[in-house]
From TrEMBL:
Keywords: Cytochrome c-type biogenesis, Disulfide bond, Redox-active center, Signal-anchor, Transmembrane. Signal peptide: none annotated. The keyword Transmembrane applies. Gene3D superfamilies: Glutaredoxin. Residues 55-198 form the Thioredoxin domain. InterPro entries: AhpC/TSA, Thioredoxin-like_sf, Thioredoxin_domain, Thioredoxin_ResA/DsbE_sf. The keyword Transmembrane applies. This is TlpA family protein disulfide reductase. It comes from Evansella alkalicola. It comes from the Bacteria.
């Protein structure tokens, strides 16, 4: 009886030890992940950006020419919008923050369509499971601005994107004026756009 009780106690102690080890390992991994994230953000800042992407603000935006989903033209390039303010929103159908923010871009475009601004919604097609997923999403979502398909990952690579959604603000001279990684609300979108316009017109 005593031997059985002793065995039970030893097993209980071993279980406690194992549990403590697992907690320690999980905490260590979490701390390591947080350190890596902070190092990445610091690196982005040192490179002259805002910590969201390694492409620098103030540089000329890499040009691209991509297929258009159900547009008047088969292809569309960034350079054909030179002279306009351009907002490039990089998104994917599997990215919930991307799909959550799209209504804000739709609202913005409805209200600012007469202004000197264009929105290009660039789908990160190379990250999607297949084209059918994108088409089904776009059929159900009334997006009122051009949607381009980055099938070969050109924009993803050229703009050095590390996360989605990602939004770039391009000034009329074709330079990257601002950028943000992550969900953008309507109010923030308006605020950032107004700031870019004010800075550009104040030169």
């Amino acid at each position: 009886m005593k031997a059985k009780r002793l065995t039970t106690i030893l097993l209980f102690i071993a279980a406690l030890g194992l549990g403590a080890f697992v907690i320690y390992e999980n905490q260590s991994q979490q701390n390591q992940n947080e350190r890596q994230i902070q190092e990445y953000l610091n690196e982005g800042t040192e490179q002259g950006g805002n910590g969201t992407t390694s492409i620098q603000l103030g540089v000329e935006a890499p040009d691209f020419s991509l297929p258009v989903y159900e547009g008047e033209a088969d292809m569309m390039s960034l350079s054909q919008h030179r002279g306009d303010f351009v907002i490039i929103n990089l998104w994917a159908s599997w990215c919930k923050p991307c799909t959550d923010e799209i209504p804000h871009f739709i609202q913005f475009y409805e209200e600012y369509e007469e202004d000197n601004v264009e929105i290009l919604g660039v789908n990160m097609t190379s990250t999607e499971s297949n084209h059918e997923v994108i088409y089904r999403f776009l059929e159900d979502f009334p997006i009122n601005y051009p949607v381009l398909l980055d099938e070969d990952g050109q924009v993803y690579d050229d703009y050095r994107v590390y996360g989605l959604p990602m939004t770039f603000f391009i000034d009329p001279d074709g330079y990257i004026a601002n950028s943000v990684m992550g969900y953008v609300s309507y109010d923030r979108l308006v605020s950032m756009y107004d700031s870019v316009v004010e800075e550009y017109e104040g030169r």
